[in-house]
Specification:
76% helix; 256 residues; mainly alpha
Length: 256
């Protein structure tokens, strides 16, 4: 990304200053992921405190996860409330927050899946599958981000790049689907169709969020790398004006 220039990222600049990635836009996005995380983590906490699982029977790791979630929820609530002014500091804070809380929201939904599987006695079957899908999702994100950056730098070759990216993504999605279906058949997970359906839907959301987060990563890089991308960019230095007539007179005097 260090090779990207301001001219390469003109589209991102528009989104930061007038489009979806303005300060109000990022505040709305953080509130949106807060609601989604609140639903998934809230459901998982409800299941965790039910009689089947029980809060006391959870390990210290799970207790720590829920305590950390409480702190992060507080931060997620405060950021949109505190960063409401249109200034460069708030833009920098929100640009980082959007990236980090997208990752958090993506992982939060699996807390619900794992807690449901604990409740049904299938935790030992779903836990490895969740780790595999998370790993594959990050691989897909790295490929998309890498090709996105190349596409920005080589706009003339963008169509060819998009075709290659689509082929790679199609292969990875098919591979991911094959792993999910194969593991479910092997471990008889199709017996519990409710968890299976939720798991597949959340896996699709997981990949979509990671791909969408590529734009947020590039936007955050541009905010910190290029001062002109700020909502209040520093004033440009004006070059001193030289009158062409005076310049010619000076040349004649020098010749004499």
């Amino acid at each position: 990304m260090s090779q990207l220039t301001e001219n390469d990222c003109i589209d991102i600049k528009y989104e930061l200053q007038k489009g979806r990635l303005t300060i109000p836009g990022m505040r709305v996005y953080l509130l949106g992921v807060l609601l989604y995380s609140g639903c998934t983590v809230g459901i998982s906490l409800f299941v965790a405190t039910a009689n089947t699982v029980g809060w006391e029977s959870l390990s210290n790791i799970w207790h720590t996860i829920y305590y950390i979630e409480t702190i992060l929820f507080a931060v997620n609530i405060l950021l949109p409330l505190l960063c409401w002014k249109i200034n460069n500091v708030n833009q920098n804070v929100l640009a980082i927050a959007v990236v980090l809380f997208t990752y958090k929201t993506m992982l939060d939904q699996y807390i619900a899946i794992l807690m449901f599987s604990k409740d049904r006695g299938l935790y030992h079957l779903y836990a490895p599958l969740v780790l595999i899908i998370i790993a594959i999702g990050f691989i897909i994100q790295i490929i998309v981000l890498r090709n996105w950056i190349k596409g920005i730098k080589n706009k003339n070759k963008l169509n060819n790049k998009r075709k290659r990216v689509k082929k790679k993504l199609l292969f990875l999605i098919i591979f991911l689907f094959a792993i999910i279906v194969g593991t479910m058949f092997t471990n008889d997970l199709f017996v519990d169709k409710e968890i299976m359906f939720i798991f597949v839907v959340m896996s699709v959301v997981h990949i979509a969020m990671l791909i969408g987060n590529c734009e947020f990563i590039i936007a955050a890089y541009c905010v910190f790398r290029f001062p002109s991308f700020a909502v209040n960019p520093p004033p440009q230095k004006k070059s001193p004006y030289v009158n062409p007539k005076n310049h010619r007179k000076k040349k004649k005097k020098n010749k004499r």
